[in-house]
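Give me the fold.
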Amino acid sequence: MSTETYLNHPNFGLLFRVCIVDDGQELYATLYAQRLFFLVTNSPAEGLVFQPLGRSNARMMLESRLRILRRAGQQADFDRLQHTYKQTFQ
């Protein structure tokens, strides 16, 4: 079963979810180039809000999420996200 999640950005086309950052916030990247990153917030009042991020900020968010998963003992989620981290940033 695939757990991939996609969004259509009005200007940049199809984005894929890299990881969940916080409650109601997710990190997305452009599908093909994986060079543009967006923090997407699902706000009841405004709907989906796309905030562009630089590569270094996106990397820090992903590293922070990896630390949270490791501390929580969620090894399967940690392994999947670490694989995504290596594909995206190395």
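The mean pLDDT is 90.
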